[in-house]
Design a protein that fits this description.
The complex is a heterodimer of chains A (114) and B (113).
Chain A (H helix, E strand, L loop, with lengths): L2 E5 L2 E5 L4 E8 L3 E9 L6 E6 L5 E4 L2 E5 L3 E6 L8 E9 L9 E3 L3 E6 L1
Parallel strand pairs in A: 2-11
Antiparallel strand pairs in A: 1-3, 3-8, 4-5, 4-9, 6-7, 7-8, 9-10, 9-11
Chain B lengths: L3 E4 L2 E4 L4 E8 L5 E7 L6 E7 L2 E5 L6 E7 L2 E7 L7 E8 L8 E2 L3 E5 L1
Parallel strand pairs in B: 2-11
Antiparallel strand pairs in B: 1-3, 3-8, 4-5, 4-9, 5-6, 7-8, 9-10, 9-11
The chains are: A mainly beta (114), B mainly beta (113).
Chain lengths: 114, 113
């Protein structure tokens, strides 16, 4: 069964203080790794999909990278509006018991103070 | 249209009530999902519909009954719920089951009293 572990559980940053969130995963065959942002009481908002080791994607202050065992979400010079819960999820290739499902990690609660 | 629309946004129901949650998408996606999310926890999969057929049921109690009337609509019928069923119920869709990223709706905040 697929497993996803995110760290840290919570991260407090000062505005402008760059940092990284970690997502470690175990999957029989990776179809894709996804990063979502979730604000309180709202549905997850799609950020990135990564498909193979070595792949990187960027969007504004966020950059996601992928290795064979983990993914990082790098946040450069964060602003208070970046405060949210960041969720990592994996999707398996057909044939595995988790096929058809998106398996989420517990999330990292990011707070950026002005 | 790149949205998944869920109604109602908030619902309070008694343990003897019957209510329904609705979800709609017009992106041509052929897979639709119901997730349940408790506070400070990740979303948990409940049901998956692929081409309007129920493909995955994650051993959800029968007091939750899903329905997919057509490729754009997904319903979740609720009956005789318990207070512990209070949660954020999320609908999502994707182009195909198990393929590509999911688009999530904003959710229905359900409170069972």
């Amino acid at each position: 069964e697929d497993q996803v572990t995110q760290s840290p559980e919570a991260l407090r940053l000062q505005e402008g203080e760059s940092s990284s969130l970690n997502c470690s995963y175990t999957v029989s065959g990776l179809r894709g790794l996804f990063w979502y942002r979730q604000d309180p009481g709202k549905g997850p908002e799609f950020l990135f999909t990564l498909y193979s080791a070595g792949e990187e994607k960027e969007k504004e202050r966020l950059k996601a990278t992928l290795t064979k065992k983990e993914s990082f979400l790098h946040i450069t010079a964060p602003k208070p509006e970046d405060s949210a819960t960041y969720l990592c999820a994996v999707q398996s290739l057909p044939g595995g018991t988790s096929y058809g499902k998106l398996t989420f990690g517990q999330g990292t609660i990011l707070t950026v103070h002005p | 249209d790149t949205e998944v629309t869920q109604t109602p946004k908030h619902l309070v129901m008694g343990m003897t009530n019957k209510k329904s949650l609705k979800c709609e998408q017009h992106m041509g996606h052929r897979a639709m999902y119901w997730y349940k999310q408790k506070a400070k926890k990740p979303p948990e999969l409940m049901f998956v519909y692929s081409y309007e057929k129920l493909s995955i049921n994650e051993s959800v109690p029968s007091r939750f009954s899903p329905e997919c009337p057509n490729s754009s609509l997904l319903n979740l019928h609720l009956h005789a719920l318990q207070p512990e069923d209070s949660a954020l119920y999320l609908c999502a869709s994707s182009q195909e089951m198990g393929n590509y990223g999911y688009t999530f709706g904003s959710g229905t905040r359900l409170t069972v009293v």
